[in-house]
Amino acid sequence: MRNLSADLNDLKRQHRYRRRRVVDLAVGTDIVIDGSRISNFSSNDYLGLSQHPEVIRAMQRGVEQYGAGSGAAHLITGHSKAHHLLEEELAELTGYPRALLFSTGYMANLGTITSLIGKGDAVFEDRLNHASLIDGGLMSGARLQRYQHGDIDSLRNKLSSSKAQERLVITDGVFSMDGDIAPLPELAKVTSQNDAWLMVDDAHGFGILGKRGAGSVAHFMLQDQVPIYMATLGKAAGVFGAFVAGSEELVETLIQRARSYIYTTAIPPAVAEALRASLKIIQNDNERREQLHAHIKYFRSGASELGLQLLNSPTAIQPILVGSNEATVEISRRLFDAGFAVSAIRPPTVPEGSARLRITLSANHSEEQIDKLLDALHQCCPTSEGSYA
Predict the structure, then answer these.
(1) Long-range interactions of 245-253: CB distance < 8 A, separation 24+
(2) Is 176 annotated in the active site?
(3) Where residue 346 sits, what CATH number does that domain have?
(4) Is 358 found in the same domain as 263?
(5) Sign (positive or negative) of CA dihedral 319, 323, 328, 330
(6) Catalytic residue among 115, 176, 313, 354
(7) How many structural domains are present in the chain?
(8) Residue-level pLDDT at 27
């Protein structure tokens, strides 16, 4: 029998052991943990919509109308009018004929990939894709090949040498640990030239990029070249869930085949109502996106002046490369003691030797909060020369 205690001790020795903190209260961009108020720079709530009063009121009204839960899977009696209207509104926003709700992004990716390809097929994924995409590729039974990050020539070589009948290329739209945007126009071109499908996971682009916040595919105006679009609803949308958008035939195929859709309870209708309110704000309140992008520029300018090792990210995800697992954990701890929640990201989430601090910005942060974070980083982090302030 496997020695679980030994395995856990190995993780601790490698500084890969993860611990949960219990949040007592969330107040805007602050959280309260064990009675201490902490400025939160670890949340994916990029537009601050989880705290928006209209979103909260919509969820409350949804509970009053539908109750606390959906009671069944979508294909039984769990598909409410709220779900149906939300799907239609998601399709309209993203520019696709149909959209299909899933309970989580992980379930959306697994269900979609395993529904579309299988044994004898091939799937090609960016080396830095999210774990759910990698797991979906492995579970499909297709031959999984990983191309170098953002490298079109690497993908082209693998596609041209593949003899598989069905070929699916998958990429993150915005990479969750680096914050960079995938070269979608080039990916769409090489995928089309090789008669393959292209799927984009836009968990960190939806709501932030593109006209009306429609995401990275809309940002490049590629809806007609990206047949499979997935995004999550618990990040910039501020609530919970995920969806896949595409053709009528794609959505109907997923309804019939996606096990992670068929065999699970639908998200509560009240959540769908909150998301409908969130979508309205995303589309109509461009000022929030402008504020977020202003914060990104402000933070990057300040961090560069301090000599911190930023990655090339134009998005709300601003990683600071540290390298050592032990040093990254220690810096994260010191920042927490100074009043800032900043995640320490280590392998296997990122490649060996590239442990980092993952700072995420929100439209709801103030410049004062960012200034205070920069001061704390100046005290806690090594500069590009490797020394500490």
Answers:
(1) 245/90, 245/91, 245/94, 245/96, 245/98, 245/99, 245/100, 246/96, 246/97, 246/98, 247/96, 247/97, 247/98, 248/97, 248/98, 250/98, 251/97, 251/98, 251/99, 251/100, 252/98, 253/115, 253/116
(2) yes
(3) 3.90.1150.10
(4) no
(5) negative
(6) 176
(7) 2
(8) 75
For residue range 118-134, list pLDDT tens digits in order: 999 999 999 999 999 99
Mean pLDDT (the chain) is 94
Q: Residue 34 pLDDT more than 70?
A: yes
Please give the pLDDT value at position 387: 43
pLDDT at 120: 95
Give the pLDDT confidence of 354-372 residue by residue, as tens digits: 999 999 999 999 999 999 9
Say if residue 173 is in the same domain as residue 106.
yes
Do 346 and 317 lie in a common domain? yes
Q: Does the active-site annotation cover 204?
A: yes
Q: Is 304 labeled as catalytic in the residue annotation?
A: no
Check 204, 219, 295, 365 and give the catalytic one. 204
> CA angle at residue 83 from 80 to 89, to 5 degrees?
140
Domain end marker among 247, 265, 284: 284
**Residue at which a domain ends, from 267, 284, 301:** 284
Is 245 contained in some domain?
yes
The answer on 196 and 96 residing in a single domain is yes
Same domain for 216 and 344? Answer: no
pLDDT at 378: 92
Q: Please write the tens of the pLDDT for every residue from 82-116.
A: 999 999 999 999 999 999 999 999 999 999 999 99
Of 235, 278, 313, 343, the active-site residue reads: 235
The residue range of the domain holding 147 is: 67-284
